Amino acid sequence: MTRKAEARCWAVLPAAGIGSRMGAEIPKQYMAVAGATLLEHSLRALLNCEQILGIIVALHADDTRAAGMPIFQDPRIQMVSGAEQRNGSVLAGLDALMSQAALRDWVLVHDAARPCLQTHDIMRLIATVIANETGGILAEQIVDTVKQASADARVLRTLDRATLWRAQTPQMFRLDELREALQQAQTQGLAVTDEASAMEMAGYPVQLVAGSAGNLKVTVPADLPLADWYLQTQNGVVWRES
To answer: Which residues of 40-78 are buried (b: 16+ CB within 10 A; e: fewer)?
Structure first.
């Protein structure tokens, strides 16, 4: 009997944005919570997963901060120049992987501004995707009542929340399929807000894997104290770069 080849996993972390909605003087990925920057926390979560062979971080071409951070000395981390838009940065990371990964390897794309990601959620995503051989994303089922609004802020209808999920990251797909889907969306001028959107448009199935409520994305200043609280309370441990 032929032994099935062990699945290989990589990660891409787009971190070239400026975080304009934070209204801060520095890009939000370099803002600190619980003893480290958002970027460091996000990288540490991925590094804690032994199944991830390497991480490509797409940075702004003028970034001068990352190179001086001790975590970037980890041999599993590589830096590339990103783009103004997220999909361009992800593509830059995928292009960098083309010289070292196999086309059918799996790639996990994670937001630099999701610092509270936990290792057990990454492991569950990887295990589920590999078992079903179908790309998937971490997501959280919506429990609030959700209204669809008109342009003048009037309720049009109440949506069935049983069918609604809030997308998170990482999002995990085959290297060749994700790269082709993002390139196709870019060529056609299609707006994609995450990797799953591009995969859906390209006709690929995407499965939902239940994630944790704490895996929030830091978008506005009010998110920082909440992220800090989650990080302070996760396992009672706060990670700090030595």
So the answer is: bbbbbbbbebebbebbbbbbbeebeebeebebbeeeebb
